[in-house]
Amino acid sequence: MLNTKKLVLAALFLAMGMVLPFITGQIPQIGSMLLPMHIPVILCGFVCGWQYGLFVGFVSPLLRFVLFGMPPLFPVGIAMAFELAAYGVLVGLVYHKLKQTDVKGMYLSLIVAMLGGRVVWGLVMVLLTSVAGGIFTWQVFMAGAFINALPGIILQLVIIPMIMLALERTHLIESKA
Fold first, then answer.
1. Taking the model in full, what pTM does it have?
2. Angle value at C-alpha 22, between 148 and 147, nearest 5 degrees
3. Which of 13-27, 45-59, 87-101 has the lowest mean pLDDT?
4. With contact defined as beta carbons under 8 Å apart, do 86 and 109 qualify?
5. DSSP 110-133
6. Average pLDDT of the residues in 117-137
7. What confidence category does residue 102 fall into, taking pLDDT thresholds of 50, 70 and 90?
8. Amino acid 48: pLDDT
């Protein structure tokens, strides 16, 4: 894929990361649980590669804070920047290094990225909360990374492979198969 095309697509994914939280925010009970900024970052890693996924992932929460004041910068926004960067890098690296890039490869890449991103988020939260004099417990990690995020995890596992398959079948992106 041409670098110009990747750059334009990365900008589109970054813009989606700015807009999607407004849409899911209209569902007060589970809006933030749907993890709306994660989806465009993961798609960016799949479509454009790990370098673009890293950049879009790291910049998205920071730019959204500068533009809209959300998410709060410390500790949430900073931790999200590292988490989303990990998502973009991991999904891009695993997917593009696999020989098998069909649906199984998509799911493997997605699961590795989802687990890795959550570990990075937890490590950064431990560091940031300890600097601020707080405590980040195992229970807080499990609640934030998995229990409260369950609707978003399910949404990602359902929608991202569907979007990728649709993009490949319509030849909007190059098929790896």
1. 0.94
2. 5
3. 87-101
4. no
5. HHHHHHHHHHHHHHHHHHHHHHTT
6. 94
7. confident
8. 95
115 within 8 A of 107, measured Cβ to Cβ: no
In this prediction, residue 101 carries a pLDDT of 67
Residue 85 to residue 57: CA distance in whole angstroms: 4
What is the spatial distance between Cα 168 and Cα 163, in angstroms, rounded to a whole number?
9
Residue with tokens 């409260």: 148
Q: How far apart are the first and last CA of the chain?
A: 15
The average pLDDT across 92-96 equals: 94
Architecture of domain 3-22+37-169: Orthogonal Bundle (1.10)
DSSP codes of every residue in the chain: --HHHHHHHHHHHHHHHHHHHHHHTTSTTTTGGG-TTHHHHHHHHHHH-HHHHHHHHHHHHHHHHHHH--S-IIIIIHHHHHHHHHHHHHHHHHHHH-S--SHHHHHHHHHHHHHHHHHHHHHHHHHHHHHTT----HHHHHIIIIITTHHHHHHHHHHHHHHHHHHHHTTSS----
Number of other residues whose CB lies within 10 A of the CB of residue 56 = 31
All structural domains of the chain with their residue ranges: 3-22+37-169
C-alpha 104/C-alpha 48 separation (Å) is: 19
Retrieve residue 15's tokens.
């813009």
Mean pLDDT, the chain, rounded, equals 93
